[in-house]
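Sample 1 of the test manifest.
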Amino acid sequence: MSQEKPSLLSEASRAEIDQWLTKYPPAQKRSALLPALHIAQDANGGWLSPELIEAVANYLGLPPVQAYEVATFYSMYDLQPVGRHKVKVCTSISCMLRGADELLEHMEKHLKIKVGETTPDGRITLKKAECLAACGGAPAVMIDRDYHENITPEKANELLDSLK
Amino acid sequence: MSIELNKICFRTLQMDKPWTLATYEQADGYKALKHILQNKVPAQDIVEQLKLSSLRGRGGAGFPTGLKWSFISPSTPAPKYVVCNADEGEPGTFKDRDILRFNPHQLLEGIIIACYVVGATDAYIYIRGEFYEPIERVAKALEEARAAGYLGKNILGSGFDCQIHFHVGAGAYICGEETALLESLEGKQGKPRFKPPFPANFGLYGRPTTINNVETFASVPVILNNGGNWFLELGKPNNGGYKIFSVSGHVNKPGNYEIPLGTPFSQLLELAGGMRDGKKLKAVIPGGSSAPVIPGDMMMDMTMDYDCISKSGSMLGSGAVIVMDDSTCMVKVLLRNAEFYHEESCGQCTPCREGTGWLERVLHRIEHGHGTAKDLELLTDVAMKMSGRTICVLADSIALPVVSFMKYYRPEFEYHIEHKRCMVD
């Protein structure tokens, strides 16, 4: 770790990563990489900057490339700034059969943004999700950490409007 | 004939707070584990009961669980691991999420027993990253189990040590493939490994590893409490026991139905409330989006078990039953699945990385009225060139469905090409 500048990882984040490290054999610190990137992202307004990814790698004693390749492989890591809330609409087969495409279109109109974009006030980033494993409650939407199922356009409006 | 639902993994669903240790213990929770530890039941006897039960892997491959558990024995040199695949993500499948949320202790008991059988002291539950609520339930259950002495050092005074840890994914369907999952658990990109060697020889950290799906582990305590033969007879030969079917799509009551293997599809459809708006059944994908499609009238004559579904040219897979009515455009359905597999291909094998993209683009132009007569041959040609030429089965998971859609619904694709619109509009 660099001596001159403090790590981009907060003390709380480092303590949390340390907790994860206890789960794996001492020689397998790399196993904590996925959880550590989640922790870093959550503490950074929902996204990972290249510097932050490198800080995670440094903290775990890994070459930065190992953290970059993981951060770019998995869909839950955002590599650009995002809104305060992430809204992900599942559009896989079961949700599609029960109106996910129409729901997504409705949400785009309601928020006046396209999928993949963030509202100008920085409130919401709207995304498509691949199967969330909630097909029994299709169409399903994930907002931050919570699942919402059987979402109609009316319910979508309520949910979106309640996000501050 | 009415079916008694939910006898195995969902047997505590109607009880108050079924996810708590107190409730689970009221329902004979940890009884199988106590019996094993107190009587020092030989690992071999447990494997024999599982073989007798005909329990098959519930994640999709249907591999016999007893046989898998016999590959590693207490005398295999340590370290060795047990891993639970809770990376549920096969489109149409939503059963493991409910086991994790509503019956986490039964899963833990199954995993501890697996550790005992193979002589592992550490197990990992790999849970998909989106499952925040299920993760919380599992974390709490682990705390309770540790406090009660079901986990840790010298469990129930038996001298057996076992620890279970949960691990989180970060959004990648491919990590449901067992060797990709192991890579991911090691902190790498989820790229499937060449096999052999199989995980039983070279698994987590290169050590012998037994890996099973959530539903498989959670079935084990109930099987051992009642005997392998009891389970077998709940289902039919070679297809023992109950299985959870996740029914989604155009039915009145989508949901999880835990029923005997061998139950007629027509009965499952009835349980799921029948067709929505009284429409006609057109097609069923019986085992998750990777499974070839089956026309509705054919499906109505079939039973829900591994052998019957596989005889029809499809597969039971994870038990995800996707039901479609006659308003469904089959071109759109196949396009959506192609988009999924293109997005989720890990990219390491050229036939899959490129082939899934080809399929998506060709289907996209057919769906949007720009297809040509040659496109149908092209689809089949690309599919055949993907199938069997890759490290894992992700390529087959879209290639084989393409072939099945061509077999049963070719006229719809031709109509799209000729009329530049959908037959069902």
